[in-house]
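Help needed: design a sequence for this.
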């Protein structure tokens, strides 16, 4: 199969005064797959720039063998692999150690997204990402980079009262963990559909003394009905109204949603405020990996080649 060369065509390249900011903002973007969606892709090298960080979502019930096989395949194809480690589906410390060893031995994995996971009842003793971090297993195994989850519009599972008290307390703990362990950490967020709540939330992190860089989650191009379904299931907050308003316009209802407007607004804010805490863009390919990869290429071009963080 001929591989894409990842060069901007003139009719695809971003234009206008915000083009450079948008390209810079998209540099080093990451994307997420699951084993079952990855199996449908013949060759990721035909879709993504070399070295792109690819998260592998671990959904409850997915065998670890499938997760590791997907990681090994992505590693062979030249990508940086970051599997999920959801605390609530890991029964014990021995299982965690086994998963880490498998990922390292078969796929040379050195990065992880450590999160609580969306299941209501833990299968074992772990119920939070902090417990996984406290085992010290990632550090002893030589993992270079550990990411944790963030929720710009809150998380009712963590803060049922609608506040963000528990979420912020957990993020402060994780920031302190990064400082005392020298772990390279970042917050990767739930996807959102509006720039302002993101800007307010990132500024709030800074005000709270939480210095972890943010990798902002966005939903890739998809049918509007698909996005609304996922947004409701994942607990997306007030920015859901952006989709609901769009759905009221029949002319837009049949057109795929693209996140370009929101990302461009965040990019412009970053250009005006270089110390703004967003470091990378993370794409949830809810409308398919191919559609998201093509969109990322269109708005980022060669700038979308990831500048991998140093070890």
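Sure. Designed sequence:
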């Amino acid at each position: 199969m001929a591989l894409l060369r990842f060069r901007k065509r003139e009719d695809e390249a971003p234009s206008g005064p915000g083009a450079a900011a948008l390209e810079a903002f998209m540099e080093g973007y990451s994307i997420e797959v699951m084993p079952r969606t990855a199996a449908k892709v013949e060759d990721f090298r035909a879709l993504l720039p070399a070295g792109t960080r690819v998260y592998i979502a671990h959904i409850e019930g997915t065998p670890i063998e499938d997760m590791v096989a997907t990681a090994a395949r992505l590693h062979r194809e030249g990508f940086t692999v970051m599997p999920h480690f959801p605390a609530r589906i890991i029964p014990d410390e021995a299982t965690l150690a086994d998963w880490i060893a498998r990922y390292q031995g078969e796929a040379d994995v050195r990065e992880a997204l450590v999160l609580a996971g969306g299941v209501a009842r833990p299968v074992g003793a772990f119920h939070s990402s902090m417990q996984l971090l406290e085992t010290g297993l990632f550090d002893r195994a030589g993992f270079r980079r550990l990411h944790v989850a963030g929720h710009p519009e809150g998380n009712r599972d963590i803060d049922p009262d609608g506040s963000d008290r528990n979420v912020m307390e957990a993020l402060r703990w994780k920031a302190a963990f990064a400082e005392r362990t020298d772990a390279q950490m970042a917050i990767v967020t739930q996807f959102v559909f509006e720039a302002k709540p993101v800007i307010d939330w990132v500024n709030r992190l800074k005000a709270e003394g939480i210095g972890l860089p943010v990798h902002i989650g966005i939903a890739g191009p998809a049918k509007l009905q698909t996005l609304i379904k996922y947004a409701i299931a994942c607990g997306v907050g007030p920015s859901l109204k952006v989709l609901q308003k769009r759905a009221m316009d029949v002319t837009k209802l049949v057109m795929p949603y693209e996140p370009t407007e929101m990302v461009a607004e965040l990019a412009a804010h970053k250009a005006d405020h270089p110390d703004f805490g967003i470091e990378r863009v993370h794409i949830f390919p809810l409308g398919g990996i191919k559609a998201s990869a093509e969109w990322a290429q269109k708005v980022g071009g060669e700038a979308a080649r990831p500048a991998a963080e140093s070890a």
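The domain at 19-298 is CATH 3.20.20.220 (TIM Barrel).
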